[in-house]
Amino acid sequence: SMKALNFSYTVGDIYLAGMFDVHKRSLSPFTCGDIKTLHGFLLLEAFHYAIEQVNSKQGQFKDILRG
């Protein structure tokens, strides 16, 4: 059986990748710690916001959805 992976994904014609350290280190291996609010989750949210802003504007990439 295939194991489900949790990740952020937006459908689009051009794919932009970003890697963000969203979780703190856990005491046990192969598990996630608490969420890093300031330097993890907020950077991920800023990345999503930037993509939404570019997608909402008409310009050089008219009729192309970036995800």
Automatic annotation (TrEMBL):
The keyword Membrane applies. Keywords: Glycoprotein, Membrane, Receptor, Transmembrane, Transmembrane helix. GO terms for molecular function: G protein-coupled receptor activity. It is found in: Membrane. It is a multi-pass membrane protein. Gene3D superfamilies: 3.40.50.2300. One of its GO terms (cellular component) is membrane. This is Uncharacterized protein. It comes from Arion vulgaris. The lineage of its organism: Eukaryota, Metazoa, Spiralia, Lophotrochozoa, Mollusca.
